[in-house]
Fold each of these.
Amino acid sequence: MKNLESVLIKPAGPDCNMACTYCFYSSKSGLFPETKIHRMDDSVLKRMIRQIMHQGGSNLSFGWQGGEPTLMGREFFEKAVNYTRIYGRAGQTVANGLQTNGILIDKNWAEFLYEYKFLVGLSLDGPKHIHDRYRLLKGGKPSWGKVVRARDILLNRGVDVNALSVVTDYSVRYPEEIYEFHKNNGLNYMQFIPCVEADPLHPGRIANFSVTPEDYGKFLCKIFDLWVSDFKKGTPTTSIRWFDSILFTYAGMEAPECTLQKECGKYVVIEHNGDVYSCDFFVEPGWKLGNITDGRIIDMLNSPLQKEFGLRKTDLPQECLNCPWLKHCWGGCPKYRQYSPKTNLVHPIINTSGTERAQNKKATYLCAAYKIFFGHADSTFKKLASKIP
């Protein structure tokens, strides 16, 4: 039986105050046609936190994402923190993470986030020409100035900030510029997210702003070299989340990042109305586990449907099973198995069985990227792992 340890929460659903070209979540508003504005009300918030605190273990992780979660306002999060205290058991700890575009961040937000030790993931793709390529405000205006202002406010107050940078067809050309930009501006924790999405104008085809596997592989290699070159006395001075997780696998441990684990399904996503889904990338009717108003989160986490979802990741083609890097990536995130670099087409992974399920046995779109990267970084990872006590 899986323990309830981590929950991803969408308090404002797919609503956002930006209009990023590559956003995959804005279309989820179609799941809730009865409402135009999506906000988690107090009854759902209270029920959700009560369940998590009562059913969860000693160490719990709340990930607040969107859409844009700050649309809820600080008062909502003050209530959330208070409810964890009311419903928590003696000895329980809660780690809160907030992923934000930064547009609404001000000194009052920074004070709150600092006081309650929130880890903030700030969506910042890099320097202005890179960030403003696809991360636009509604109406098509650039957002870089507002986001950089939010970064500085957060860092000046001492908030822990992680840069979240999407790697697109454009930004993939500038690995060194992006890395140095973040590092030189105080963002020593970085996460790079490969952009591979369906074309909103031509359903079934991969969007032109998506990164190619080969280009992404080269990008990772350059970022890796920069990361290693900044070591001091054998210790990293910057943190690249994906590299940190891979190092666990070289040390014979399970990677903290779910995309590098053997199976999926160790956490759930809770939407603004209490609907519970299998994964952030699969908020779809076929992977809806239930609603917190008529079921227990722990039961949904351990339901047959969630088990089925988790095991889907192990449906690997022979190409993967024979790969020397299998134990380091386990086929990557199933999201990227929906895309074919050979045909440029999208093949959604839906809740099916039998013959249709067998068709899902595909290597990840990013397979070539991973092979390029591991071929480049393998020996260094082995050396680093050998020094872990």
Note: The two ends are 31 Å apart (CA to CA).
Amino acid sequence: MKDMNFFQRGISRTLLLILVIILAFGTGLFTEDIIQKYYQRVGASSGLDFSLLEEVFQKIEAGFVAPEKLDKTKLIYGAASGMVESLNDPYTVFFDPEETEKFEEDISGFFEGVGIQIGIKEEQLQVIAPLEGTPSQKAGVRAGDKILKVDGASIAGMPIEEVISLIRGPKNTTVTLTISRQDWEEPKDLKIIRDTIKVPTLKWELKETQDGKKVAYFTLFYFSDIIYKDFKEAVYEILNSGAEGIILDLRNNPGGVLSQVEEIAGWFLKEGDVILTEQIRGHEQKHKSKGPSKFVSYPLVVLINQGSASASEILIASLRDNRQVPIIGETSFGKGCVQRLIDLKDGSSIKMTTSKWFTPSGEGIEGKGLKPDIEVNLTPEDYQKGSDPQLEQAMEIITS
């Protein structure tokens, strides 16, 4: 999701300014007098003092032991990354052009790697969800797993994006994750062979309850930037299928693009219903359903677990608060903030937390998640047998 509001453009200009200054130093373009006047003018207009940055660069250029190793591009990206890291927000990250390209591949749902979404919870790096049909899921990775090491090296205190770069890699290469799980006595190593990942957006099938009622079992895997196209095709199939109710499965859905989930919510909510309230630097903005409300009259049950995060939690909360839809499963992940990808002129970008979001009832979920109305846990035995008591409970509820 990309946005360029006034605040974000200001940040972009600052980073671009640093880039221009360092490149100018490297080519000898600026004289000392010009630099000083430039800093004075920029400092006065922005409230920032770039003289320390200038001094650091000059000291490095004049005294570093191996001048032939100086890479001015890496210096500027390092300065930009350091500025962003100083915010101490695990979801705010500077991407160089190569990293930007990889991130945009992730959003599109097509990339090389193991297919795993990770995040910070209780100051611990955790698996939000393994994506459907990916090597991580096939290797047995589960939502809630704690990653301790990558290829034998501890990742304690490492930024999320750095961990992601270690886990990702070309097709047919191997990565070993050391995993801690609540029902394990000690951590285990999971060896995963990377592959080309094409994340499916959704699937649905028609099920029949014990009393003969037809129910559409509708699973949304990930809110990629193309899901709405697939969603519209699926909903018209459901509308023409004779389904009398819908079970919406958002388990292990790690989120995605906000605009896509808003479009989808409009099919389940009345026009004008609040989907979420976004709080942006003290100002509140209500996001409301625009319809078309085709599923408003359908009985609906939602399945969630600890792999349901971010955008999927927005959809869950909007259905709960507006329609009192029964929620079945386990407490969700708890990600109550919004990031936007801000493009910079050299092809780099910032993924930056720009707002917090709250449910239609005003609840903040950051770090605590959404609790189900009916708690049903999947046990290790359920995984081994391939049984799904959460879905079974949903089938009973929608019948009643």
Note: The chain is about 35% helix and 25% strand.
